[in-house]
Design goal:
Blueprint: E1 7-14, H1 23-42, H2 46-64, E2 69-75, E3 78-81, E4 84-87, E5 91-99, E6 102-109, E7 116-120, H3 126-133, H4 148-155
Antiparallel strand pairs: 1-2, 2-3, 3-4, 5-6, 6-7
Helix pairs in contact: 1-2
């Protein structure tokens, strides 16, 4: 009978970050989206215009709902994020970054579909997370900041 997985650390995280956006932000995005739609129509690329409209509808629907919370577990066998499991041999490195008084855990994986996972630490102690993961995965000492893609996403509230 296989051994039961032991949870070493656990906390809840939102599925995605929900930014507070001003009316100006929505106005600018609407103007840019409208320009893309006009461009699609003027160039007879109706599929492009339709994709922009569908993207806008999905984005609005996502914005109207509170993101669900997922369980994030660090176990003796790997990482569990909701119903996804990442074994330690599939994680190449990790680092903990602090930003504006909040920390985040970054995991570099071997998976093409999700090569970098960024997990908000919220209530988790960064030193405890680092201590547990160091037993199983190599910490990337050269990385101390959040990735540029996340910085831009947070800055532009995407």
């Amino acid at each position: 009978m296989p051994e039961e997985t032991k949870i070493l650390l656990s906390w809840k995280i939102p599925e995605h970050v929900r930014h507070q956006r001003s009316r100006l932000w929505f106005f600018i995005v609407a103007v840019i989206g409208g320009l893309f739609i006009v461009y699609g129509v003027l160039t007879n690329d109706f599929l492009f215009a339709l994709i922009i409209v569908l993207f806008a509808v999905v984005y609005i629907l996502m914005h109207m709902q509170e993101p669900p919370f997922l369980d994030f577990n660090i176990t003796d066998r790997g990482i569990e994020l909701g119903n996804k499991k990442f074994e330690y041999n599939d994680i190449t490195s990790f680092w903990v970054a602090a930003r504006e008084g909040r920390g985040s855990l970054h995991l570099r994986t071997k998976y093409f579909s999700s090569p970098l996972l960024s997990i908000p630490l919220d209530s988790a102690n960064p030193d405890a997370v680092r201590g547990v993961l160091n037993k199983y995965v190599t910490e990337d000492a050269s990385e101390k900041e959040e990735p540029l893609s996340e910085l831009l996403s947070r800055r532009f509230k995407l």
